[in-house]
């Protein structure tokens, strides 16, 4: 493919173009990993502006696009949504609120506040502070808008602790802990080869019984039923709905109905074979599961239980237009892919690219049974995830499930199709060149247009937040730096030929805080990487927890590791993440060998073996880490560092448990001492990303003394109690 920006001359800058780009939110300059100032190519800006709906091919187009932005930003009409914080004055531009205008605030709870604007002392007039959080209605001179007034901060771990203790005490919450799990990798007898919501429910209950208060899970976003080879949970079809791969067919209609469905499609032998595999065969497992679920759906047509029938009908009614769109997309996508090989909706006939078209309505009517099947699967998935959270809370967790919100979605998916007017088109989210990836990254994902956010009242963003909070006691926002700015690359261009686009951070943080309280759920922001100055403080001010990972918590100078007491307080602490090596893998250098194995290791200018050099550097790091363990008292002060074959997993867990973080999350991979990480960034089929399964079933995990003892020691370390030595095994 020819790059859409090929042949541009980066040496000639157009000041009018730069001004338009800056007004639209693009940053014409950026700093690379070495601190050098880099200029975005002029042709890149023109392409990106055009794809934001702001043509900039010549002076006339630039002038017209500037006028469009002026009208949007400084017009005389109220925007469809304004954000504010409780007990703070609300500034309004004088173009929409003038001296002498009457205003009315219709509070969500019912009361009405009337007033009149006085003389402004600056270019804005002020609404008086509003003490009640909520989505209120503001009326000025007959014009109405939504006024979203947010709490000062998100719902916190302390709030969750207080709510879970019904004695009314407001005692400080102890430092709590939880576990992180890749749901697809969980095992349960009868799961068909993919981890499901029933296994998740069991895991949540067992962790709660051992003192854990949170279970962070891999993204549950809807994938592509017709393309099961698309397996990354961070590149979903939609962030509004759920992954049907995790449905347990027996969970809602019972084991008898599920067994009958398996018999109808003759899948018993196949599913048993899939369950025995060490890695998930997504294509085969999804084919079998969909066949079973379709047979289950056919038998559901004979259902006589009025409660179940009412529950399904109510679910569909609540889902409304968005749910119908997703189900229609799933059906239509499968049909177009099978008949024409059209995997991307932009390749469909024009009349099918718009979910509101007569052609799409005709398709849904003519294929009602198939569309209903996808509604049925979303209902089953919803009930399964709801049950997991209910069971977690009833078993004693203060927080329960922590859902993972991906930074974007596949541009070929249902979310982009259904919300095409609010999504970026023709661009990919990615990352600029850095020390680890000198070519930059283009992830093939899309997300919301910040311009459309403002002009359409943040409706798509709010819908996504509500979908994420719906089934959990918390959410983890992947790459939360993207709330401030995202690196966008024109489709077909090199990842280096991108630019940063700023987002309305303060508005989004307020909406996150508002929805956090409405759902009584904590918020964690994955703020790893190059964090802009002041960004961490903004997150903390709004009550979001950042993330701190053992491998990155280095002492001044970068050689040694920080003592646990020196870690940040307002964060979630963890040993590792799904994209990083496990404790065992890091200690043994398995990540280094994997990168060399798949061609991610660059040759060195001095001709030395890059793997040998990396392993030497890792050996030095192992020494520094072991020293940190000894200094912290989690390892014997007079013992030598363990060998490569005996990674200090217990010491690493104890070290992170000793940090002051209000919440510590331990990945199952580290609790089990596993070597392999779930995902190796920059790889696809070269590494078994998103395919690894645990060796034991969830039930059997808790019968293992080593695993159970680790949980016991962690619980004692976080609660301040002493473990029973007779029940604790040494490494």
UniProtKB/TrEMBL annotation:
<dbReference type="Pfam" id="PF02446">
    <property type="entry name" value="Glyco_hydro_77"/>
</dbReference>
<keyword id="KW-0808">Transferase</keyword>
<protein>
    <recommendedName>
        <fullName>4-alpha-glucanotransferase</fullName>
        <ecNumber>2.4.1.25</ecNumber>
    </recommendedName>
</protein>
<dbReference type="GO" id="GO:0004134">
    <property type="term" value="F:4-alpha-glucanotransferase activity"/>
</dbReference>
<dbReference type="GO" id="GO:0005975">
    <property type="term" value="P:carbohydrate metabolic process"/>
</dbReference>
<keyword id="KW-0119">Carbohydrate metabolism</keyword>
<dbReference type="InterPro" id="IPR003385">
    <property type="entry name" value="Glyco_hydro_77"/>
</dbReference>
<keyword id="KW-0328">Glycosyltransferase</keyword>
<comment type="similarity">
    <text>Belongs to the disproportionating enzyme family.</text>
</comment>
<dbReference type="InterPro" id="IPR017853">
    <property type="entry name" value="GH"/>
</dbReference>
């Amino acid at each position: 493919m020819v790059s859409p920006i090929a042949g541009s001359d980066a040496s000639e800058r157009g000041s009018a173009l730069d001004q338009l780009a800056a007004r639209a939110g693009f940053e014409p300059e950026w700093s690379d990993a070495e601190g050098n100032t880099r200029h975005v190519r002029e042709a890149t800006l023109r392409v990106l502006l055009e794809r934001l709906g702001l043509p900039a091919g010549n002076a006339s187009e630039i002038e017209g696009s500037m006028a469009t932005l002026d009208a949007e930003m400084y017009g005389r009409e109220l925007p469809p949504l304004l954000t504010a914080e409780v007990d703070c004055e609300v500034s309004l531009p004088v173009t929409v609120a003038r001296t002498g205008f009457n205003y009315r605030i219709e509070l969500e709870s019912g009361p009405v506040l009337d007033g009149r604007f006085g003389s402004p002392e600056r270019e804005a007039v002020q609404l008086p502070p509003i003490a009640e959080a909520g989505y209120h209605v503001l009326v000025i001179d007959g014009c109405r808008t939504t006024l979203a007034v947010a709490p000062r901060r998100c719902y916190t771990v302390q709030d969750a602790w207080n709510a879970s203790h019904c004695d009314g005490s407001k005692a400080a919450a102890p430092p709590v802990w939880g576990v992180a799990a890749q749901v697809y990798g969980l095992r349960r007898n009868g799961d068909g080869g993919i981890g499901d919501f029933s296994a998740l429910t069991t895991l949540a209950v067992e962790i709660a019984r051992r003192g854990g208060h949170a279970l962070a899970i891999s993204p549950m976003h809807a994938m592509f039923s017709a393309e099961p080879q698309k397996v990354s949970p961070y590149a979903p079809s939609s962030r509004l709905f759920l992954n049907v791969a995790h449905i347990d067919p027996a969970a809602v209609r019972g084991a008898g109905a599920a067994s009958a469905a398996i018999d109808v499609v003759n899948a018993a032998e196949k599913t048993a074979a899939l369950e025995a595999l060490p890695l998930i065969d997504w294509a085969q497992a999804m084919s079998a599961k969909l066949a079973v679920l379709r047979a289950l759906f056919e038998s559901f047509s004979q259902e006589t239980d009025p409660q179940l029938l009412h529950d399904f009908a109510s679910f569909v009614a609540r889902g409304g237009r968005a749910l119908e769109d997703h189900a229609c997309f799933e059906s239509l996508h499968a049909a177009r892919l099978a008949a024409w090989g059209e995997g991307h909706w932009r390749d469909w006939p024009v009349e099918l690219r718009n979910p509101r078209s007569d052609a799409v309505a005709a398709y849904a009517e003519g294929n009602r049974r198939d569309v209903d099947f996808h509604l049925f699967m979303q209902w089953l998935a919803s009930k399964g995830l709801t049950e997991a959270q209910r069971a977690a809370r009833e078993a004693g967790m203060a927080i329960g499930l922590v859902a993972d919100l991906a930074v974007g979605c596949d541009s070929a998916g249902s979310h982009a199709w259904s919300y095409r007017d609010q999504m970026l088109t023709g661009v990919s989210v990615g990352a600029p060149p850095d020390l680890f990836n000198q070519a930059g990254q283009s992830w093939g994902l899309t997300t919301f247009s910040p311009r459309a956010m403002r002009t359409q009242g943040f409706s798509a963003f709010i819908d996504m937040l509500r979908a994420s909070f719906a089934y959990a006691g918390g959410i983890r926002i992947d790459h939360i730096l993207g709330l401030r700015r995202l690196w966008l690359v024109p489709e077909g261009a090199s990842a280096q030929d991108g630019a940063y686009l700023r987002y309305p951070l303060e508005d989004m943080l307020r909406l996150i805080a508002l929805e956090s309280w409405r759902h009584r759920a904590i918020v964690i922001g994955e703020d790893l990487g190059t964090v802009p100055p002041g960004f961490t403080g903004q997150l903390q001010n709004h009550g979001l927890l950042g993330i701190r990972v053992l491998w990155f918590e280095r002492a001044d100078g970068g050689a040694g590791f920080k003592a646990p007491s020196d870690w940040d307080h307002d964060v979630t602490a963890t040993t590792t993440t799904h994209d990083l090596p496990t404790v065992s893998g890091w200690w043994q250098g398995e990540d280094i060998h994997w990168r060399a194995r798949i061609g991610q290791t660059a040759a060195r200018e001095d001709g030395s073996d890059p793997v040998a050099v990396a392993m030497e550097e890792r050996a030095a790091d192992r020494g520094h880490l072991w020293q940190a363990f000894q200094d912290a008292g989690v390892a014997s002060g007079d013992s030598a560092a363990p060998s490569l074959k005996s990674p200090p997993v217990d010491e690493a867990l104890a070290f992170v448990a000793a940090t002051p973080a209000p919440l510590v999350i331990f990945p199952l991979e580290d609790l089990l001492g596993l070597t392999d990480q779930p995902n190796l960034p920059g790889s696809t089929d070269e590494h078994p990303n998103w395919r690894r399964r645990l060796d034991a079933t969830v039930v059997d995990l808790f019968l293992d003394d080593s695993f159970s003892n680790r949980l016991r020691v962690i619980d004692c370390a976080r609660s301040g109690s002493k473990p029973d030595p007779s029940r604790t095994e040494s490494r």
